[in-house]
UniProtKB/TrEMBL annotation, chain A:
Residues 24-257 form the ABC transporter domain. Keywords: ATP-binding, Nucleotide-binding, Transport. GO terms for molecular function: ATP binding; ATP hydrolysis activity. Pfam families: ABC_tran (PF00005). Gene3D superfamilies: P-loop containing nucleotide triphosphate hydrolases. PROSITE patterns: ABC_TRANSPORTER_2. It comes from the Bacteria. Transmembrane segments: none annotated. This is ABC transporter, ATP-binding protein.
UniProtKB/TrEMBL annotation, chain B:
This is ABC-2 family transporter protein. Keywords: Membrane, Transmembrane, Transmembrane helix. InterPro entries: ABC-2_transporter-like. The chain crosses the membrane at residues 21-43, 55-72, 112-132, 144-169, 181-197, 233-251.
Length: 334, 263
């Protein structure tokens, strides 16, 4: 069974366009002009139970709007949504019992009271029995290492501490489906690792389906086998992360640090016929060769034979760069 | 039911989180009533009664009006407006409860807290200095209690209505402020309605405002007797029900119009 099914989903917003200048401002008092902005444009996809899916895209691509429609907060302009077998905004109160949501940029805990008081309220709201709470939340609290934070008011927690508590709060009713909207925004590396590890365990132990949006590609690499990429409200890639890398991230990057200045023309001439693209690095005398698969030994030996080198670095194309390339080059169909 | 009781508890905790607010609250309450007492003694200026009310009755009227206001007053309209403005309404909508219902319960929690921990201590302080006259009949107190509950419901309904309008306008501080002054003025909090000119009194019969403050205060000062008490309560109950309709209708329209701001 699919946890999420979306068909030709669309959301349009009416945006008030202000006229410019003082005269324009006065005219706005009487009549206003509106433009229709299509934030989500006829997208279709399905997510199977137990999957972890990364939902990525630039700011304003329509990620958050989609999540808000999937969670029943926003009403779609058109299209069909079935999540956990229900229509989210039609049966909102019944539906939201089956999902957990974390918004990285907003707190769902009560600011002035201790974390455990918030938990207690949510426990009542979701009608979780004491027994269930002790068993499930005991584990969650232990895994996220938030035991010592429970009696502190939320406003006294650091961002990392708060985020772990938010995650625990979203899981009080042990939902089969979890939406995470930028859960690691602004967190340090240790907390990110802790959260990722926790999400993995959650997925393995309870088979929790997770849909997450993020700008941090290392989140995606650590967690998701599948990514859905969005641009201007349209899906431009839906498939495995592996395939994305194969198609767009083949080859290696070789960064040479030369002992003295060299020119691009010289380097191009040196590696003629190898299909290498040279780009100037960020430090002085550093040049980066974009080398197609299998070409690294030849490039290194040719360069080393002619130039004095201080250092060589070889690495794979980072996912961030792949994503950036895709956005720059436009839509791909995978 | 459990979740609503729990929410009242949480509201209590939130009110207690800031102690200074609590103590200054009692002080402000006492000062307010004292100020009105001196104002009214100056207006009476030795006259034994005005519009059928003695100075003692008037002082009691003012003290009770403010006591009642502490209970029925809440800022639900502003809270809703704020939650819409900064997008926090999204978090509320992913919870399995009715948004407006939970808001009303939060208002009740706040009202109960202020009634028992703010107004009653304040009233006790004031009664040491001012000649307040309270009725001895249990029936009057009972009617007053019921009337006060209606006041809370009507006031909250008006606030929810004003709050939901924010779903359409996004910014309506001006409207909310105007609404607040209108209620203070026309509900009989500042001046008993019997002091208004006849045409104004007649016009106000068609608005829910007098059901908020004027009726409970008239009941407790025993200015309303017998059938007048019953009519007053009936009028309040009617408004409680009538106001539900525009709320339900606006709320359904509002959910479709909702735009969550800020990411």
């Amino acid at each position: 069974m699919n946890a999420i099914e979306v068909e030709r989903l669309r959301k349009e917003f009416k945006v008030h366009a202000s006229r410019s200048g003082l005269v324009g401002a006065f005219r706005d008092l009487w009549t206003r002009r509106y433009t229709i902005v299509r934030a989500v444009d006829d997208i279709s996809f399905a997510v199977k139970q137990g999957e972890i899916v990364g939902y990525i895209g630039e700011n304003g691509a329509g990620k958050s709007t989609t999540i808000k429609m999937l969670t029943g907060i926003l009403t779609p302009t058109s299209g069909r949504i079935v999540v956990n077998g229900m229509n989210p905004h039609k049966e909102r109160e019944k539906f939201v019992r089956t999902i957990g949501v974390v918004f990285g940029q907003r707190s769902q805990l009560w600011w002035d009271i201790a974390v455990q008081e918030s938990f207690r309220l949510l426990k009542k709201v979701y009608r979780v029995s004491d027994e269930q709470y002790r068993r499930h939340m005991g584990e969650v609290i232990e895994m996220l290492e938030i035991g010592p934070l429970l009696d502190k008011p939320v406003r006294k927690l650091s961002l990392g501490q708060r985020m772990r508590c938010e995650l625990a709060a979203a899981l009080i009713h042990n939902p089969p489906l979890l939406f995470l909207d930028e859960p690691t925004i602004g967190l340090d590396v240790l907390v990110k690792l802790n959260i990722r590890q926790f999400l993995k365990q959650l997925n393995e132990r309870y088979g929790t389906t997770i849909l997450l949006t993020t700008h941090d590609m290392s989140d995606i690499e650590a967690l998701c086998e599948r990514v859905i990429m969005l641009d201007e409200g349209k899906i431009i890639y839906d498939g495995s992360l592996e395939r994305l890398k194969e198609r767009w991230g083949q080859g290696k990057r070789v960064a040479f640090t030369f002992a003295e200045a060299v020119t691009a023309a010289f380097l191009r001439q040196l590696t003629e016929g190898l299909n290498v693209v040279w780009k100037k690095g960020e430090q002085p005398n550093v040049w980066v060769a974009h080398v197609p698969p299998g070409g690294v030994p030849e490039v290194v030996s040719r360069v080393a034979a002619r130039c004095a080198l201080n250092d060589i670095h070889i690495h794979e194309v980072p996912t961030e760069e792949i994503i950036r390339n895709i956005y720059e080059e436009g839509a791909v169909h995978g | 039911m459990g979740k609503y009781v729990e929410m009242v508890r949480i509201r209590f905790l939130m009110m207690l989180a800031y102690r200074t607010n609590y103590y200054t609250g009692i002080l402000i309450y006492a000062i307010n009533i004292a100020a009105y007492y001196f104002l009214w003694s100056a207006i009476y200026g030795g006259k034994s009664s005005m519009q059928g009310m003695s100075l003692g009755q008037m002082t009691t009227y003012v003290a009770i009006s403010w006591l009642a206001r502490a209970f029925y007053f809440n800022n639900l309209d502003r809270e809703i407006a704020m939650e819409i403005r900064d997008g926090k309404v999204a978090v509320e909508l992913i919870r399995p409860y009715s948004y407006l219902g939970m808001k009303a319960v939060q208002g009740l929690g706040e009202g109960l807290f202020r009634l028992f921990f703010l107004s009653l201590p304040g009233l006790l302080v004031v009664s040491l200095f001012l000649p307040l006259q309270f009725p001895g009949h249990a029936k009057t107190w009972l009617s007053f209690g019921l009337s006060l509950l209606f006041s809370f419901i009507i006031f909250s309904e008006l606030n929810l209505l004003a709050g939901v309008v924010t779903f359409f306008t996004f910014r309506n501080e001006g409207l909310l402020r105007a609404k607040r002054f209108i209620i203070d003025l026309f509900s009989g909090l500042i001046l008993p309605l019997s002091f208004y000119p006849d045409w104004a009194q007649r016009a106000m019969m068609y608005f829910p405002f007098q059901a908020i403050s004027y009726i409970p205060s008239m009941i407790i000062t025993e200015s309303f007797k017998g059938a007048a008490v019953r009519d007053g309560l009936l009028l309040q109950a009617t408004w409680c029900i009538v106001l539900l309709f525009p709320i339900g209708w606006l709320w359904r329209a509002a959910k479709k119009r909702l735009v969550v701001q800020g990411g």
